[in-house]
Design goal:
Two copies of one chain form a homodimer.
Chain A: H1 2-20, H2 33-37, H3 41-45, H4 48-60, H5 65-78, H6 94-105, E1 112-117, H7 118-122, H8 125-129, E2 136-146, E3 149-158, H9 164-172, E4 179-182, H10 188-195, E5 203-208, H11 229-236, E6 240-243, H12 244-247
Parallel strand pairs in A: 1-2, 4-5, 5-6
Antiparallel strand pairs in A: 2-3
Helix pairs in contact in A: 1-4, 9-10
């Protein structure tokens, strides 16, 4: 789910910047806000994960996390993906949904471990994927406690990517995963951590995004969601590599009704 | 469980210091090691939670967390509480056990949120209390990922106490507790966070350790596990206050067999 969450949250933060721009005249001349206001996606993307988190922090610091989650939920009711022209909540991967249900039906506990913001994901993942808040692990901003509320600060606390993914799994879960699914080098350490499980047989799967018609194609040279080292390792170590273009009959659930 | 975990872990770290002392001649003259080697409990306790974590870090940095947990489990097989003269695993509170079982039988998810070390607790709490690793939240040291392993560093990462308890609950669970149970001012913020739940009716309970014969008595003036501000607030706000001496017929399960 990595790059997908990342993009959703980027669009959310960009919309918030536009809403709040009149209160921040300085944004017209400072990045990443300047690129957002100019609808310059390339300029925005150059900032990567820290750039996204800077946008999120700037638009939401001082807010308590419950209000933030309500705001995301409200935004999702009407916002649509800029090119697919559908609500973000429609853009779940059908095969991923089926996998989650299959695993849960067989008594596995399923967690989402993504670079996306933990509050952002917790505002829609439970309803969209049937995965509860406490099974959602992500990047997070600094917070502090005040009078019964968790308040968002304007600072990054934890970025859930690459070598920090197994650390986050260790802190949240305290067990090694028996199965790990990824789509980029950012997932590699987590999958390697799963593979090194000595207690149980394990399973690792990479979804290789190869379909530039129905979805988006990226791998070795992508700026965000690069899949290079992990792909080589997976191929050489019997990991399952899914070729999205040729192996996913259906990507999004709405295709089922066509 | 706060002070109890704290003490168990302190005894574990003290035993480790004694085992490793021959490799560290400098410990004879530096605190908190000096007090440990002199069996000076008062000197050791003066360091509080940071002192305990310093002991844990010094005796376990460079070790991977799975080996650490095995070492704790091994220690627990033979170690006995210095005054009660029983294995630590016997020193579960019978009423706490019954409460956990009652809540779980009614579909509540039960978490332990303690100042004790997260790895230390995860090595025995699942078997002792039937609470899985992923429902155990605690203090933790810094770690790094290397070649499929989580390695312990010699630095404190997170102390789970007072205002950081609700932060830890927010990060791990992402939901407000509907019920919270504590025994010291260190639990107050967590209980207040639970009480501020607007979505559900809530419940807060303090166990007041009043029994200096069967267990230990502490409250307003205790060095560790102080219960002062929380006791006043609880009394004034209809929280349930349990008087251990007069209301707990049984403290430890082994009393049932007498």
């Amino acid at each position: 789910m990595g790059p997908q969450n990342f993009k959703f949250q980027l669009f959310f933060a960009m919309d918030r910047v536009k809403v709040l721009a009149s209160e921040h005249p300085e944004w017209k001349t400072t990045e990443p806000f300047k690129s957002v206001l100019a609808n310059d996606m390339h300029g925005v993307m150059k900032g990567g994960v820290p750039g996204l988190l800077a946008l999120v922090n700037a638009t939401h610091s001082g807010m308590d996390v419950e209000t933030f989650k309500e705001e995301v939920a409200e935004w999702l009711k009407t916002a649509k993906h800029p090119t697919i022209k559908r609500p973000y909540t429609n853009l779940i991967y059908q095969p991923m949904m089926e996998l989650i249900q299959y695993l849960e039906a067989n008594d596995f506990k399923v967690y989402i471990v993504s670079g996306g913001g933990i509050d952002f994901m917790r505002s829609f993942v439970p309803e969209m994927y049937g995965i509860p808040e406490e099974h959602i692990i992500g990047s997070s901003g600094k917070v502090h406690y005040k009078d019964g509320k968790i308040m968002k600060d304007d600072e990054i606390y934890f970025i859930d990517d690459k070598e920090t993914k197994p650390l986050a799994i260790y802190r949240h879960i305290g067990k090694r995963p028996v199965a790990a699914f990824g789509n980029s080098d950012g997932d590699f350490a987590m999958m390697e951590y799963s593979e090194a499980n000595k207690k149980y047989k394990t399973f690792q799967l990479y979804v290789h995004h190869t379909d530039d018609k129905r979805e988006v194609a990226y791998d070795r040279k992508s700026h965000i969601g690069k899949l290079d080292k992990g792909l080589d390792y997976g191929i050489n170590n019997n990991w399952t590599i899914v070729d999205m273009k040729n192996e996913w009959k259906v990507i999004y659930p709405f295709e089922l009704n066509k």
